[in-house]
TrEMBL record:
Enzyme Commission identifier(s): 2.7.13.3
Protein name: histidine kinase
Ranges for domain HAMP: 238-293
Reactions that this protein is recorded to catalyse: ATP + protein L-histidine = ADP + protein N-phospho-L-histidine
Segments crossing the lipid bilayer: 22-44, 218-238
Top-level EC class: transferase
Domain Histidine kinase intervals: 301-517
InterPro entries in alphabetical order: HAMP_dom (IPR003660), HATPase_C_sf (IPR036890), HATPase_dom (IPR003594), His_kinase_dom (IPR005467), HisK_dim/P_dom (IPR003661), HisK_dim/P_sf (IPR036097), Sensor_TM1 (IPR025908), Sig_transdc_His_kin-like_C (IPR004358)
Amino acid sequence: MAEEDLRASRLERLAFPLGASLTARILAVNLIPLLVLALSLFFLDSYRRQLLDERYKLARIEAQITAEALAGATPERQKALLVQIGKEQRMRLRMYDAAGKLIADSFALDAPAFTLSDPADTPFTDDLARWTDQAVNFAVRADAAPPYVEPDDLNADAWPELSRVRQQGFTQIELRRAPDGTPMITAAAPVGLNGASLLTTRHAVDITQAVRSARTSLLTIIFIALAVSIVLSLYLAATIIEPLRRLVRAAVKVRAGREREIEVPRMDERTDEIGLLARAVSDMTGALRHRIDAVESFAADVAHEIKNPLASLRSAIESLPRVTEPGLRAQLEEVAAHDVRRIDRLVSEISEASRIDAELSRATFELVDLAELFANVVATKQTRGEVRDCVVTVEKQVDDARVLGVPLRLERVAENLIDNAVSFSPPGGTITVTIRRHGNRLATLVCDQGPGIPEGEREKVFRRFHSQRPDHENFGNHSGLGLAIARTIIEAHDGTLLVADESPLGGACLMFELPVT
């Protein structure tokens, strides 16, 4: 688990800046694919080149076919063909003789088939389209075509492609750029065998329009997807981040100790991970408050319990110098010694009660036979004379009385329960320890013949420093922590300790249950 967390942390550091908010991360995750899609705009240049390549082939074929048609025609027929083909194909056709002199121009013979627009007179939308063309061309580092300019010299040598045709004898293609940035394609082809040549000029504005149309469609899709992605990202961020911020604000208030009754939002309506986190934080806060309340209550109880013997001890010590009568001095000394023993007992019990949870959380559980454990505890106490004249028996009603636990701690539970039963038993009373199966748990009952425990007092006996003792016991011999410590140990073993509803001996009957192995 630690390695997975480490890999996740490294991946997070590589993927996003450490200071990036969740909103920024969500937006980035959703927008990066759109940015990648936006880069496809640059691939439109390859689409434009493909269209140009196809148009080059078409221009070459048109020039060659037209040249063949002109080769066998009379001068009048040649002029008629130039006008007809120019109108139909929206081109400008010029024919030159063997000396390179212009002998026919379709634009001079008839109305021009196309006109070139002046960028200064075009609307803003066209200007924006041209700027976009230039930006894309610059980004993809497309080769810029030379500008299309009608030469002042009307001879064939003014056109490089015509010069090459006259020298090499086969069709030549040239690409130029109109004033508005649209392509101008010229094709030069030889006419017949007498040295004449043909020059065709096409304003391929449809190529630019096709590229712009494709780019507009793609941009429209990108902007719509971008808007939808931003809205969805912000919605997703709101559903994730705002609840987290509410949790953070509540956690900060809890940490600062402000508004003790602050309610950490549980978000019960949410069934996702945020809802699970909110409920976990709320439960954790409740547990923390309960623990704080318990610690504060325990501290107050400790101060109260220690204060009484300290006050008695102080009074006895302060009185000793003023008392000269030997019997009274001996009595004061006995009081002081008794208070010291009481304080020592309290400190020991308090220390043990405070470290039980920590010790058990680190302890290794092992198989413990409860019947054998109680038998050993009873035998030891009988040897030490700690059961007074009571008869203590251990009855095992199961074949296997083993449970998983910490032997020393379970032994402490047995000692506390037997001590409690001995304290409340009458002289010569009977105490029974019965171990039996209760479902999938092992139940142990410690019963006595004492006065029993009223129903309203059954939970109070497990409170810390609850020390309602029988009259025959000396005051201060018990700290009131015995049953509280026993319950803490049993609960740390996933068990329960409570007062049983019925006692076979008529007195009190304490029962604890532990899971079977």
